[in-house]
Amino acid sequence: MSRTFFLTNVLTVAAVLSLSAVSRAQEQPGALVAKFESPDHFVQAVAFSPDGRLLAAGDRGVSIWRVADGAVVARPLALARKPPVMKVAFSPDGKLFAAATDGGDVLLWAVGSWRSHKTLLSNRGKASDLSFSPDGSKLAYSSDTAAILYDINSGKATVIADGDGRRNSFDGVSFSPDGKFVVVCGNGSIRVWDVEGRKMKDVWPTEAPSFFGRLSPDGRHVVSGGGSIFGRKSVEVRAFPAGEKVGELTDFRNGVFAADVSHSGRLFAVAGGTYGGGEGVVSLWELAGARELGFVSFGNYPIRGLAFSPDDSLLAAASDDGFALLYAVERLRGPLLKKQDSPLCGEVLVEGDAAFITSLSKVPNPMRSEFELPWKLEVSNPDAVRGAAGVPVVLRDWAIESSAATDRARVKTFSQLLPREQSSAAGSDYIVFGRTQNPGWDESFIVKIYRDGTFFATNNSGKCLASGRLAQLKTDFETVRKRLLSEGLLSIPKEPLTLGADHFGTAFIEISAGGAAELRSDADDVKVLLEGGPAKKREAFKRVFELEEQFVNALLRAGMRPPVQ
Description:
Layout lengths: L4 E2 L25 E6 L7 E4 L5 E5 L3 E5 L5 E6 L7 E6 L5 E6 L4 E5 L2 E9 L5 E6 L5 E6 L2 E6 L5 E6 L7 E6 L5 E6 L2 E6 L4 E7 L6 E4 L5 E6 L7 E6 L5 E5 L5 E7 L5 E7 L6 E7 L5 E7 L4 E6 L5 E6 L3 E6 L7 E4 L4 E8 L2 E5 L4 E2 L6 E2 L3 E4 L12 E11 L4 E10 L6 H4 L3 E9 L6 E6 L3 E5 L5 E6 L7 H10 L17 E10 L2 E6 L4 H5 L5 H21 L9
Parallel strand pairs: 1-22, 35-37
Antiparallel strand pairs: 2-29, 3-4, 4-5, 5-6, 7-8, 8-9, 9-10, 11-12, 12-13, 13-14, 15-16, 16-17, 17-18, 19-20, 20-21, 21-22, 23-24, 24-25, 25-26, 27-28, 28-29, 30-36, 31-32, 31-36, 32-35, 33-34, 36-37, 38-39, 38-42, 39-40, 40-41, 42-43
């Protein structure tokens, strides 16, 4: 009986991506044992030689290093080659080396004779995978236009599957251990080509996104799928040769672009990441039961390729930051712990047995019609903060605990900004002033005033901006509330609350008394704005916000008052 595993979404983090702006995290040492720098600052693929002594990388050429000391053995292609090399592979006997380019060329070298190569295929689409047969006599190649089986001895190329270069493309090809079958992934299916019979033996439909596909070296499972940074993500595991889906992983917080299966068939790794100040990530999994064993991150750009060493002791990763990375598989265990250098400010939210640190207020998010929390970070040790439910806190000594699915906060010390005896009223009586913009997310602000006159200000990512008491400004909560009412805040129409756009700037004010919240913003009907107005709702809100702007700026300039202990 097959064992089925399905991971469900346990936490949606709307803006934990922004937490990297809060502080520079310290990388957890240990698993990363070497990094080989590409002279072209661009690595798309990696492959080990069969004896594990060499590591090859596809960049805008080809780089080959000696694993033992990182010495450059050869650079068979000139740098800044256009198009770049997307896939690399050694033959099982270690005598041949192949590379496939973004322009659909497949090149072949005799290992050690790096000065000359043979072109096997030309202009066969954007390369997505490359694999030698077990006896080294054939190459399987996939691209956005076709999957091709190439006979090295005869020079004959056989198209075993056609695509159209757009939606119908192929993302993975690999041979069965006996060389009798080629597994082709992509184009909404997993196909099994009978090499001797020269026909398609099986076709298994799949709804997983198409980024990679790999038959395990032991021939028992096919791992396929992937996902874009903001799209659906899925990694499917199917039994081979039956084709039955025995598992699916869907809970990934980054783009998923690459995978590899260990030679033992016990482990698999997936990799990906985010762009623009993001990160490259690698997670290691047990294949039976899909238990995540370890997680690491590197640099600011995604990981594009993975390869286990022949003895499964090392995992190589191709980083868009320009490195071929080597991880010790046995050390790649547990979540990644990053000690944070800057405090995080927010409120404690308790839901059942779980506890979270959240932003002070909901805000307008890109492409949303309602206000939402910009971030909600689960606490991995919830008992540490449970007693501060509903009140603002400053995390002083804390770390980000990361896995493939989520970031969580591990809290060592924190400070409350409200006395414990007032915590029960904190969530019901408050006033919020805010301004959110995108781009410029981290330049936005939230100022929250509590019933006792305590105020707290952060940006949208949880960076602490100011805290103190209204007495510093010779006023109090009730005075501010009555002033807003007298200025006509609640006479302004509530809808629309947001512009529902990806680029926007929105100011808002919220008053809550006894749990009844009233929210108003300067968002107006998009059609009215595009037609030049009159934007009556926006103008009415702008009048109130301008009356309060001097007061809000005074709060933002107040600095950080020592918190309540």
